[in-house]
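Thread: Fused response regulator/phosphatase, structure

OP (GT): Posting the sequence first so everyone is looking at the same thing. Length is 420 residues per the record. Can we get the structure tokens written out before standup tomorrow? I want them in the notebook alongside the other entries.
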Amino acid sequence: MTVSIDIHPAFAAIRRVLVVDDSRLQRHILLSSLKKWGFAEVIEAESGEQAMEICRTDPPDLILSDWMMSGMSGLDFCRAFRQMPTDGYGYFILLTSKSDKNDIAKGLDAGADDFLTKPVNSHELRARISAGARILSMQRELSKKNKVITETLDQLRKAHDAIDKDLIQARKIQESLVPELTRDFGASRVSLLLKPCGHIGGDLVGMFSPFEGQVGFYGIDVSGHGITSAMMTAKLGGYLSSTYFDQNVAMEKRHESFYALRPPKMVANIMNERVTADTGVEEYFTMVYGTADLKTGRVQMVQAGHPHPLLLRRDGSAEFLGHGGVPVGLLPGIEYDQFEVQMTPGDKLLIYSDGFTECLLSNGGMLQEEGLLQLVQSSEPGQSGQEFLEDLFWRLRQIMAPNGGMEDDVSATLFEYNGL
């Protein structure tokens, strides 16, 4: 039997009520009170089994069930109701003559929300139903908010997946800026290391040679991290292209098709003018750029805020070079200075980013120049080129702070001089 009437505002959260009792008289008493309070839809069942059939068809918002019934007890009905899959929540009140604390604990364990002692007092029943209505109202509001959160998280997940896919592709594009990691120039060699701390990074390394006997090489570290820095490296990769010499600012054309390397300080000046002239570009970068004459071993370099290059002599001695300098793109009108060093066969020159020296170690400190020198000098004898750089990076990872991970890009350029 179903009765439809206008619901009282205090019970707006309760649309459908189910009364379960094997006593017709008890059901009649409860239904009379519920009708008087204006519930929209009231259903009655004479057994737990019948009540379960009703719940499977259209779960109620509120259930008033007697504990002691023939067949399925109210406790068993409550347990079965809670195990039933449903989108919403039904507030369950057990009606019982039991008042023992152990019995109440059993009811709570079965999933009951509240208890009323029989005979039921109508004022107390109304108050308990009102409390249930407030809980249902809060639960539904919470469900709505959870739904919004879930939908938002799903949208964010899709956006993240799309960005992640783009970043993976961006990394491939960035890797194309360094088409080869090692190359021999006669008996000499230039090797490169580029390890971004994320999908993409702001470091760039490279090398090029306009003709036999002359080679240029560099290490660059763009300020910041992420997409903006990576876009800047792409731009700088065009300025120092190893493929298109006509676009490479480090080269000047002589005669019909002959290119030669510009002095390093001139290259820094040109790049600084270009970057500072770009409106809206706030990024700057540090750089060491060097040129080597493979016949004489004479190396000219410019240092623009980048860590000091490390010269490793064949006899085991080592020296940090340069005087610091101002990063490129930071201030317009800067005139850069260059310095030179004379290398002999067997010497090595290491250009590295601050991802090495400022790496946080497991002891809480940073690697710094002294730590880098120790890493270099403890390398396996006979290592050279790419093997030397990869082993250097591997040993850095072994002493890195375990929870810090790579917080900055790590890059290096190694020039090994052995003449032509």
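GT: Both are above now. Quick notes for whoever picks this up: The mean pLDDT is 89. The two ends are 103 Å apart (CA to CA).
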